Amino acid sequence: MNRIAIFGLLALCLFFTGCEREYIWDPTNIDEGANERPFITMESGTKWRLLRDTGNRTPEPDEGYWVHYKGWRIDDDGTELMFDQSYGLGVGSYFGAGQVVSGFYEGMLHCPEGGMIELEIPPQQGYGDKELDLIPANSTLHFRIELVRIQ
């Protein structure tokens, strides 16, 4: 194999795997008893609770961040219907300030780097009366979000 091919293969491997792995992302890795923690309701109506508290710093309002997340809504019969997630992609998603629905943005200000938060976002802090493919108008949104890195 020639040097260019080897270099290309190495570059591809680094691109897809990253140069270092500080953390194995795992949506089931939560603090003991975290699912029993009560939700805190903000003035906007968005509810949040920490599922993994690392004690690290939280994002400032003008900072973006890399996350892994799962988003779902609950159907009329109580069934959870996932509408989006990043875990299957193998890489986190980046969101800059103002690039997500206001409830997501507001809730993330309470999540420490390396931590995990669960959000319940009322329609007015989500998509409101806007109809999307997998999200009916006036839906309450639910998210579990791991804050990979503040940027």
Largest sheet: 7 strands, antiparallel
CA-to-CA gap between the ends? Answer: 39 Å
CATH class: Alpha Beta
> How many strands appear in the DSSP assignment?
7
* Poorly predicted tracts of residues: 5-22
Number of domains as seen in the coordinates: 1
Q: Mean of the pLDDT scores?
A: 87
Report the order of strands and helices. HEEEEEHEE
CA radius of gyration: 18 Å
Class inferred from helices and paired strands: alpha+beta
Number of H- or I-type helical stretches: 2
Approximate shape: globular
The level of helicity is: 10-25%
What is the name of the CATH architecture? Roll
Strand content: 25-35%
Describe, in plain words, how this protein is organized in 3D.
- The structure is a single chain.
- The chain has 151 residues and is of the alpha+beta class.
- The protein has one domain: Chitinase A, domain 3 (Roll).
- The protein contains two helices and seven strands.
- It has helices spanning 3-17, 102-108; strands at residues 40-41, 47-52, 65-74, 80-85, 93-95, 116-121, 141-150.
What is the strand and helix layout of this fold?
Blueprint: H1 3-17, E1 40-41, E2 47-52, E3 65-74, E4 80-85, E5 93-95, H2 102-108, E6 116-121, E7 141-150
For the structure shown, list the relevant keywords:
single chain, 151 residues, alpha+beta, Chitinase A, domain 3, 7-stranded antiparallel beta sheet, 7 strands, 28% strand
Short summary of the structure?
The chain has 151 residues and is an alpha+beta fold. It contains two helices and seven strands.
